[in-house]
Amino acid sequence: MNTELAEALEVLEKEKNISKETLVEAIENSLLTACKNHFGRSENIRVHMDPDTCEYTLQQEKTVVEEVEDPVMEISLADARMVNSKYDVGDVVIFPVESKEFGRIATQNAKNVILQKIREEERKVIFSEFYQMERKAVTGIVQRYVGRNVSINLGKADAMLTENEQVRGESFKPTERVKVFILEVKSTPKGPRILVSRTHPELVKKLFEEEVSEVRDGTVEIKSIAREPGSRTKIAVYSHDEDVDPVGACVGMNGSRVNAIVDELRGEKIDIVTWSDNPAMLIENALSPAKVISVIADGEEKSAKVVVPDYQLSLAIGKEGQNARLAARLTGFKIDIKSETQARESGDFMDYEEYEDEYYDEDEYYDEEGEYEEGEYEEGAEEIEEAPEEGTETPDEEDPS
């Protein structure tokens, strides 16, 4: 019997990840409960169980008295001397207790105590395990919709993806695997309550850590992230090794790394730009894919004035202002974007010729839609003159990543 009990405890320890000491303690408490149900009280009951052999002893202690008032706690002097003639009033007599004498109700209560303790410990172990995973990305399996929320199985526990943490337009099918970001883990009487997200910017960062080894080992650092879930994300990266190109490392060969993340985010576009400690350069990079003529940044005011070519204005602002909005979040600067013509009229931009000489190379030019083309550039070329009028939207360029 004790061999079977020892084997059962080892199985529970492996499957539930509950220590053997905790299980032994639960059995000792269950025996005390059984004694209390059998005798009516258990203050004078002593239980000991050997964790190695699972051998246990139950002992009842009774005080020797002249006249017995409580037979559970006391024993008469005459009865005590029948056990041992050396006993005197005030001595304690120890009697062994046989658990097989317990009734059905006492045994059932003892069983319930053990099961309750196992359930409590299992909840504690699961909570501890997932609490350590808080603020990390994990893979879950979609189970079902609960109203507008989605129940996702994470293995040993279920998580809830609430409506507010879902990307607009995303739908899930049962048994589908999906990456989620663990927002919060709370302990409740029914077990851990786990809240996950698909919209949190940190989800993108964790996906890059999984996909890009240079990010995972710290060679490339993600300095800032700005995200509009389901539409577009901008990240600024910095390399601690001058021989490693941070953007190239994140993009991967033929875009393999970033494309894997885009697929996981179901087509969300990702712009990867180089981080710079120079605010002007950072803002210029953040407005990619739009080209910038000049940036005047005020570090104290956290504001910047940006001038772009006339035909790049709509691209710099983006559809419904998205590109400018994400760039502002990425850099932490309030960005005021003007076209070259607007800047000249307002007096914010006086000299474009120096930039023009540097920007336009004799072997390259940009066509009327702002697309880069190889070839010979001639001053006053027709392609430049026929650029779209100010305010005309141009199609979003392909994702540079």
Protein architecture, described:
The chain is α+β, with helices and mostly antiparallel strands and 401 residues long. The protein is built from 14 helices and 17 strands. A 5-stranded mixed beta barrel has the order 5-6-7-9-8. Strands 1, 2, 3 and 4 form a 4-stranded mixed beta sheet that branches. The longest helix is centred in the N-terminal third of the chain and has 28 residues, at 104-131. 28% of the residues are buried. Residues 351-401 have low confidence and may be disordered.
Record the SSE blueprint.
Layout: H1 2-16, H2 20-39, E1 45-49, E2 56-65, E3 74-76, H3 77-83, E4 92-96, H4 104-131, E5 137-146, E6 149-153, E7 158-161, E8 177-188, E9 191-197, H5 201-211, H6 213-216, E10 220-228, E11 232-239, H7 246-251, H8 256-264, E12 269-274, H9 279-286, E13 294-298, E14 303-308, H10 313-317, H11 322-331, E15 334-339, H12 340-346, H13 353-359, E16 364-366, E17 372-374, H14 382-385
Provide a brief overview of the structure:
The chain has 401 residues and is an alpha+beta fold. The chain is built from 14 helices and 17 strands. It has a 5-stranded mixed barrel with strand order 5-6-7-9-8. Strands 1, 2, 3 and 4 form a 4-stranded mixed beta sheet that branches.
